[in-house]
Amino acid sequence: MSSAPVPATALDLDAVRADFPILGEHVNGQRLVYLDSGATSQKPQAVIDAEVAFLTRANSAVHRGAHTLAAEATELFEDARTTVAGFVGAPPEQLVWTSGATAGLNLAAYAIGNASVGRGAPESARFALRPGDEIVVTEIEHHANLIPWQELATRTGAVLRHIPVHDDGTLDLDAAAGIIGERTRVVAFTHVSNVLGIVNPVTELVALAQSVGAVTVLDACQSAPHLPLDLPALGVDLAVFSGHKMLGPYGVGGLYGRADVLEALPPFLTGGSMITTVTLDEAEYLPPPQRFEAGTQPVSQAIALAAAVRYLDRLGMPAVHAHEKALEARMGEGLRALPGIRLLGDAPDAERVGLWAFDVDGVHAHDVGQFLDARGVAVRVGHHCAQPLHRRFGLTATVRASTSVYNTADDVDVFLDALSGVRSFFGVSA
């Protein structure tokens, strides 16, 4: 078990933990040690209360109806947009509500596909893909930032290419410079790998894409909850994040877009709430963000996500990052000290978030997960929706432990102590 000191932070961890009701639960007779925030985070009482308060006191359809309750609901909904957009450094008109990051990535891919078949205003033509054009992703992408681009390539005749990863988990930027070229139209990549935990070089990748006029799409699911984030300053054209990974509820996320990009992209989903004029033969669409928000919106979820953002803002994202960085260092040191553990993405001096994926020699990841669960420790097992990356490292599954603002050094130590007994339990010699 690691004895590395945890630097003091500005966070009052006892007070933080008291804000999360589920952390008082016991699992299999043990105190819950929740290390699966990379999959979904736990929710503070303030988030739960915000959603319940809306549903019990202000529930009504937004942007529809002139009665008092509808006006109040619309105001709360749009205030939530302003709050969440501000959290990522953007004005509210540059934030589109989605049901999550997967929906946002599909929205981006299908909107570009619609431009490719001549839909949208004349300025949409700059997004059009033609046979032989190239879409560039990386070898480390979550399936949600891979499959939509596979599908777009199939529909348009574009070629899908990928930037490889080094053995230490860092992206091969030399290869990227050779891959991103005059035929590149889209470059889609993750800010932080959900398997490797490494913060990727956004500035360098954006510069390569901009040098050839390609659109950049950033998956910020694993960075928004853990790092101070300013999407406009990063220079990306589009970016997505998911509420349930950043202390918010399920069923809501955001698509950020530069104003000129959103204004030029044609819509993906169509129907009510995103139109100005409709005849039996044609329709005219609202400007962004409403152009991309057809149908019934995730109103209570958006309001609860704004509560999550306010909670993180009160803690301060620099303090959140510093706290989780200390936990990451403690966990990494402890994992390296255990025999038979192979860490993925253990690049020296790489910037990281509090997430480690690893393989236990001689023991299947699912068996490791069940062993830890019996001791009250919740981790993720499997391929983490990143099969190509696991295949790159010769694996089909790993164990992933991921932290959040409510985890403590004791959580890490309980996990490491439990993990130290796995191989002997399964009869694997050291």
Structure overview:
- There is one protein chain.
- This protein is an alpha/beta fold and about 425 residues long.
- The chain has two domains: about 15-45 and about 315-425, Alpha-Beta Complex (Aspartate Aminotransferase, domain 1), CATH 3.90.1150; about 50-315, Type I PLP-dependent aspartate aminotransferase-like (Major domain) (Aspartate Aminotransferase, domain 2).
- Helix content is about 35%, strand content about 15%.
- The chain has helices at about 15-20, 45-55, 70-85, 100-115, 145-155, 175-180, 200-210, 230-235, 260-265, 300-315, 315-335, 365-375, 385-390, 410-420, 420-425; strands at about 25, 30, 35, 95-100, 135-140, 160-165, 185-190, 215-220, 240, 255, 275-280, 285, 340-345, 355-360, 375-380, 380, 400.
- The chain has a seven-stranded mixed sheet, sandwiched between helices. Strands 13-14-17-16 form a four-stranded antiparallel sheet, covered by helices on one side.
- Strand 1 and strand 2 form a beta hairpin.
- Helix 2 runs antiparallel to helix 10.
- The two termini are about 15 Å apart.
- The relative contact order is 0.17.
List the topology elements.
Layout: H1 13-18, E1 26-27, E2 30-31, E3 33-34, H2 45-57, H3 68-87, E4 95-98, H4 101-116, E5 134-138, H5 147-156, E6 159-163, H6 173-179, E7 184-190, H7 202-211, E8 215-219, H8 231-234, E9 238-242, E10 253-257, H9 259-264, E11 275-278, E12 283-285, H10 299-315, H11 317-337, E13 341-344, E14 355-360, H12 365-373, E15 377-378, E16 380-382, H13 387-392, E17 398-402, H14 409-419, H15 422-425
Parallel strand pairs: 3-15, 5-6, 5-7, 7-8, 8-9
Antiparallel strand pairs: 1-2, 4-10, 9-10, 11-12, 13-14, 14-17, 16-17
Helix pairs in contact: 2-10, 3-10, 4-5, 11-14
